[in-house]
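User: Second chain of the day. Same drill as before.
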Amino acid sequence: MSTHPLDDYDHAQISAWLRQALHGKAALPRVLPDEAAHLALMRLELTLQAHTRRSLQQACKDLLREFCHSAQGDSLYLHELLGLVDQYKDHEQIHLLLGLVARFPDLPCLPLPIKNAVLSVLSMHTTPQPLTFWRDVLQQDPYFAARAISGALASDKMQALDLLPLMPDDAEEGGATKLKLNRAWKTMEFEQRERFVQAIQAILPSCRAKFATPIAAWLETKQPIPAPPSNARRDVCHNPTLLSALQTYLSGEQFNQQRLSIGAPRLSA
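Assistant: Same format as last time:
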């Protein structure tokens, strides 16, 4: 039994309906009035029959192929279409987008925000593009800097650092990159973290000053914290209030181990 009128449509009708929906001209189950159409579409898809879902995905691919061929379209429609492509994460669609990116230098009339949206889909895809791809993208236009460094970090965190000297001399861009480097750092094992920080330290002098400043400040927070000198550790032993609190909190043996760790003698039972 059909759960939605779309289940009774043929493919041509579904394709026409999807075009209208992405233009904001079809009723969708939005949670909020201003919710993006492609997100509402993904929610609607859950209620559709399997053949309708397949037809919708094919219609999305057909609309993307049309856009990649013409490199034209209404801005709102294209943002919604690319948002839907990002949800499906279809490999054939990614190949279509890669072909479009290769033509970017010959498409000055295609707005930069639309080009950036294309790159956003590629930067977040499960199959990352190589560093050479993102270097070429960054060298096309500094407007693509944020997408380039995101895509490069997704591909190879260490190799991505080679892009830092190519980034624009902009403090805001440096701050955004600092956050991305920090996220990458958090995903690493301890030894990898140390090498990552050292590699950034080595390459940062080659970066532009305004861009480098926020990253340099971040690096300061990642410096190893030296162990306190032994006399400072022993000073704890002469704080009766602290020792009393420790003894109350810890069991007898745990307390003795804590005393030994700070250079104090063991207490007898």
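The radius of gyration is 28 Å.

User: Great, on to the next one.
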